Amino acid sequence: MGEQFIAEDNALAIDDCLTLDAMASYRRASWRLVVNAKNLTDREYATRGFGRSSALPGSPLSVSGRLELSWGNR
Q1: Residue 69 pairs with which residues in a beta bridge?
Q2: Are 21 and 39 in contact (CB under 8 A)?
Q3: Residue 22 to residue 35: CA distance in whole angstroms
Q4: What is the reported pLDDT for 3?
Q5: Tens of each residue's pLDDT in the chain, 74 residues
Q6: What pLDDT, on a 0 to 100 scale, did the predictor assign at position 74?
Q7: Does residue 33 lie in a domain region?
Q8: Which string of DSSP letters, residue by residue, matches the chain?
Q9: 71 lies in a domain?
């Protein structure tokens, strides 16, 4: 994400940042396991701002998983 101005007069800006995301999956017969990870470095950053007084923080490290089952011919 690049630097963003947040005040109407462009006097204040949110710094740019780089986050690391990853995904891995494993398929076996009729099922598939998927794991997603976001912000692997757990970096603190702001996503956008509101005027001169506030900025929304970005999401911390998160990991989610999904199990997919399929029936029939695919």
Answers
A1: 31
A2: yes
A3: 8
A4: 81
A5: 788 777 777 777 888 889 999 999 999 989 999 999 999 999 998 888 777 777 888 899 999 999 999 987 65
A6: 55
A7: yes
A8: ---EE-STTS--EEPP-----EEEEEEETTEEEEEEEE-TT----EEEEETTTEEEEPP--EEEEEEEE--S--
A9: no
Would you say residue 74 lies in a domain? no
Distance (Å, whole) CA 63 – CA 44: 16
Type of residue at 11: A
Q: How many folded domains does the chain comprise? A: 1
Q: What integer pLDDT is reported at residue 73 of this predicted model?
A: 66
Concatenate the DSSP letters of all residues of 38-56 into one string. Answer: E-TT----EEEEETTTEEE
Q: Is residue 72 part of a domain?
A: no
Which residue range forms the structural domain that includes residue 51? 4-64
